[in-house]
Amino acid sequence: MRRRGFPRWSIAPIAMSALVLSAVGCGEAKQAPPQTMRISDVPAAFMETARKELPNVDFDEVWVKKDGTLEIRGKAKNGKVREIEIRPDGTVEEIE
Q1: Residue 68 contacts by C-beta under 8 Å, 6 or more apart in sequence?
Q2: How far is CA 51 from the centre of its chain?
Q3: Which of 8, 17, 30, 34 is 20 to 30 A off residue 72, Cα-Cα?
């Protein structure tokens, strides 16, 4: 009498492949988290741009991304979190 389903030996290669792939990963390099910066250390020109683009926002957090872009975050008077990303050359990349 023959058992139905996969033979026991056919599951082993699949299990080994899954184990190897989970240990090795998909080849993606881990990115370093953005570095924090004190709001007082942000160059004046960047803060002027941020205040011009997002008036009435109290900025309180800054991160420096790997490419040098500053992500400046704060809260508007209505409590909504707003952020602006400014490239090293001073141009605005994104406003959220």
Answers
A1: 87, 88
A2: 23
A3: 30
Domain count within the chain:
1
Tokens representing 14 are 């699949």
Mean predicted confidence (pLDDT) in 13-35 = 60
Domain of residue 44: give its range: 30-95
Angle at 43 between CA 31 and CA 71, to 5 degrees: 35
Residue 15 pLDDT greater than 90, yes or no: no
11 within a domain of the structure (yes/no): no
Extended strands (E) in the chain: 35-37, 57-64, 70-76, 81-86, 92-95
Q: Residue 72 CB: number of other CB atoms within 10 A?
A: 25
**Residue 22 domain-assigned (yes or no):** no
